[in-house]
Amino acid sequence: MAVSQMIGASIKRREDPALVTGTGTFVDDIPQTAVVHMAIVRSTEAHARIVAIDTTRAKDADGVLAVFTG
Amino acid sequence: MRRRVAVTINGAKHEYEVEPRLLLVQYIRELAGLTGTHVGCDTSNCGACTVEVDGHSVKSCTIFAVQADGAEITTIEGLAQGTALHPLQQAFWDEHGLQCGFCTPGMIMAAKQLLARNPNPTEHEIRLGLEGNLCRCTGYHNIVKSIQAAAKVMATGVEAKSPASVA
């Protein structure tokens, strides 16, 4: 297509067939392998001084890879 | 306690053991592997996850997979016949009814249901019918045009098949 023919013309998009058939790949559509999940445990006290955090039981729990405090 | 959920998606049988809290959209995307159905908001606002369940259009993040046990489900992947696009898919392409394409599967599935109920909707009826689907790119104008174009093609298709129209 010559440039003169493109001006003012409605050009068909090349990406649409995938997008209208559900086969476009958005980031969330990429399969994830070896996913690790994180859970945050917050203090049960609204106003208190943290003296120590005992992570022994959390570390021993089934499937737990690591426990971080700070 | 996990429950066994068996459904038919686009004609194929699927059966998985799932947590009762698993959403239908997660079942479709993560277990059945059909990622054309998108999760836009996870709160039933945006309609990107719209699919057809037993002939009704349903936001699949609104129901649990266990509620769909035994159902016939159609997703965006089930509309095209081989390389032949469904009239709605073709019309969205022809009429520039999409830009990024994220909302498109939900738009098309909702439009399919709308046209099944009302084959010749007015512009107002289309806009009303799609109020549960959000698009952040096109401003809806071309989406409405796409559905009007598809309605025309689909109406003609039905006429062509009718013996009365041959004479």
Structure description:
The complex is a heterodimer of chains A (70) and B (167). Chain A has 70 residues and is mainly α. Chain A has 3 helices and no strands. The radius of gyration of chain A is 27 Å and the shape is elongated. Chain A starts with a helix and ends in a 10-residue tail after the last helix. In chain A, 9% of the residues are buried. With 167 residues, chain B is α+β, with helices and mostly antiparallel strands. Chain B is built from 6 helices and 5 strands. In chain B, strands 2-1-5-3-4 form a 5-stranded mixed β-sheet, with helices on both faces. In chain B, a hairpin with a 2-residue loop joins strand 3 and strand 4. In chain B, helix 2 crosses helix 5. The C terminus of chain B is likely disordered. Classes of the chains: A mainly alpha (70), B alpha+beta (167). Chains A and B meet through helix 2 of A and helix 2 and helix 3 of B.
Supply database-style keywords.
heterodimer; A: 70 residues; mainly alpha; elongated; B: 167 residues; 5 strands; globular
Q: Count of helical segments of chain B?
A: 6
Number of helices of chain A: 3
**Contiguous runs where pLDDT drops below 50 for at least 5 residues of chain A:** none
Please give the largest β-sheet of chain B. Answer: 5 strands, mixed
Q: Could you tell me the mean pLDDT of chain B? A: 93
Report the average pLDDT across residues of chain A: 91
Shape of chain A: elongated
Question: What is the string of SSEs of chain B from the N terminus onward?
Answer: EEHEEEHHHHH
Terminal-residue CA separation of chain A: 63 Å
- Which structural category fits the helices and strands of chain B? alpha+beta
Oligomer: heterodimer
Distance separating the two termini of chain B:
62 Å
Radius of gyration of chain A: 27 Å
Strand content of chain A: under 5%
Largest interface: A-B, 17 and 25 residues
Note the overall shape of chain B. Answer: globular
